[in-house]
Amino acid sequence: MTTTPLTRSPILSWGHDALRLDLRVTDDGPVQVVRCGPSAGDVPDQVPGALPLVEVNATGHGRHWSSHRLVDTAVGTRLRYRAHHVSHAGGWHVLAVELQDPDTGLVAEVVYRSPDGVPALRAEVTLRNEGAGTLHLESVTSLALGAITDVDPDTADVLWADNDWLAEFRWQRRPLRAAVPQLSGRQVRYGYGKGSFALAGQGTWSSCGHLPMGALTDRRSGRALVWQVEHNGGGWRWECSERHDTAYLALSGPTDGDHGWRHPLEPGGEFRAVPVSVAFGDRLDDAFGALTRHRRATRRPHPDHEHLPVIFNDYMNCLMGDPTTAKLLPLVDAAADAGAEYFVIDAGWYDDSAGWWDSVGEWQPSNTRFPGPRGIHEVLDRIRERGMVPGLWLEPEVVGMRSPIASALPDAAFFRRDGVRVVETGRYQLDLRHPAARAHLDAVVDRLVGEWGVGYLKLDHNIDAGSGTTGHPGEVPAAGALGHHRAHLDWLDGVLDRHPNLVLEDCASGGMRADQALLSRMQLLSTSDQQNLLLYAPIAAAAPAAVAPEQGAVWAYPQPDDTPDEVAFTLVSALLGRIHLSGQLADLSPAARALVHEAVAVYRDLRADLPGALPVWPLGLPAWDDPWVALALRTPTTTYLSAWRRPGADPTTTLHLPHLLDTPAVATPIFPADTRATTAWNPGAAELALTLPAAPSAVLLRLS
């Protein structure tokens, strides 16, 4: 840390051309963020809505303004500036600020990072106890932004995404004033109330119920900020509200009030809060674009992010967990003929008994499903012979109650509460902090990848193990859960360190773990288990708000009885993400197979543009029942636009593409080739009129 004397100005300014962060530093008050965003200019002398950099609630200290909110904590208000350090390396600007509470000896190191040219900020907080007594933590904010000037509480909307199994990424919008009413009138003024608009995640699924994301946007100016909590379990919370006539935002991991989380920070001890990020834009789409660029900058490098191979998986609307040699071999040939580059054998490949659900854990191949001297290797070899990379499904964190691993591992290797193993739908949950649990999984992966030559693992997770585990002495379940989820990330890093070309898919009953903590390590996200092609359209269109397009895997599962328009509809859903081909390809009609081959060829032609493309929603973020759904991805020279007309929709819709204002763009249908779609472009209004005569039907356009 470098201490910088503050003799001339109490404002510490930091950032780059795309982002500025201004901190007010005084001797008699907490360090505060007084401005954060892309704008520059003078900082006002008085910023009454500003918040301390960190809010810490601890037993015996509490808040100086009682409420259920994360802000207004006594410890946060006492934290004082001690030092700061600025650096720039590898395309990242870094500001580290050290604070200290003179009463308890608590030291907080707040680290802000921002990539060159991107109006986005990542925040991390580390607490150290330099005092003489134990401090019992109840909540710690990873980011606290007060006095947000980009949105006015009177004209602001708050956005969040409901997220359910089969119904992921359903963005909702509500005026902030509907949740946080104006409390002041002409005669009496109040600085702040006690309420907020808040969401919290629960359990071992990080995005079950809601995405760990949110947004604020101003209806008058259009300006917006979007945020994400980068935690792979359900222990997270975010809230926004009003203080002194300006909006504030607070983001955190688990808390006592929401999750029963507590952490005894003993003298000399250290605690890391979960990372969070926020991005800014002149429009909501611009803010999501900045967050997309930020996600790409923060994830682990991997060749899959550039090559985007086409994947066939035998599960969805296909074998549905019942693979055998006889069923797989025709699918392998059909997938190879269609242009697939990876072939994944999904659930059930290990099951020799009546049902794979509660027998998981040992991960040895079934002898009855794969008879003969070569067993499953007959299929794996055929996959390689047809020029594809073989993949397998795993559910690594669970062990079925009928699995021999359930008795081979000690009780301490599993989630426990009150000394009893946690059971959920016939499965146990591993605690990856335990060396036996991790050694077991490492041996499985090294066997499948190192000995069998598997190049792709679909890592699923289909149970919610609840509040957590009390596996360590004195810990509350939520603290055990936080420890396990961090050990899970460490395990993934270890797998990829040993097998750097291995492709990992993040799946949890579809999209129940759509979080940046996992997606910064794993290469793909399974966006949904939705089997209805009409209902998948809004999921596919909204997915780039939660995941970079090149990581969002979308099922394309044509069926033998589908019409040509329905075959094209399901294929269009996957063309601006990652194709997960499935369905009974070998049983399709020649015309339907030709459509599949055409779609894969189109995808292989455009996929080089996807790793740099940014999402745009020409009809707004899709609602679940919208009759028309649209998604565009824009690059500096080309815009790709997918549009879906669902039953009940008018034949024509108007799509808004403000980034192409006054541009003489040409809209060319690229899939399906024989589409009956017609278009008319209005450059002065940046609007594209699109007509699709049939419903359901879909089209992929290129505007250049």
UniProtKB/TrEMBL annotation:
Name the catalysed reactions: Hydrolysis of terminal, non-reducing alpha-D-galactose residues in alpha-D-galactosides, including galactose oligosaccharides, galactomannans and galactolipids
What CDD domains does this protein's entry cite? GH36
Q: What's its EC? A: 3.2.1.22
Residue ranges of every copy of the Glycosyl hydrolase family 36 N-terminal domain listed in the record = 77-200
Kindly state which keywords UniProt assigns to this record, in alphabetical order. Answer: Glycosidase, Hydrolase
Q: What sort of enzyme, by top EC class, is this?
A: hydrolase
Gene Ontology annotations of biological process type: carbohydrate catabolic process
Pfam families per UniProt = Glyco_hydro_36N, Melibiase
Q: Which PANTHER family match?
A: ALPHA-GALACTOSIDASE C-RELATED, GLYCOSIDASE FAMILY 31
Query: What is the protein name for this chain?
Result: alpha-galactosidase
Organism expressing this protein natively: Kutzneria buriramensis
- What taxonomic classification does the UniProt entry list for its organism? Bacteria, Bacillati, Actinomycetota, Actinomycetes, Pseudonocardiales
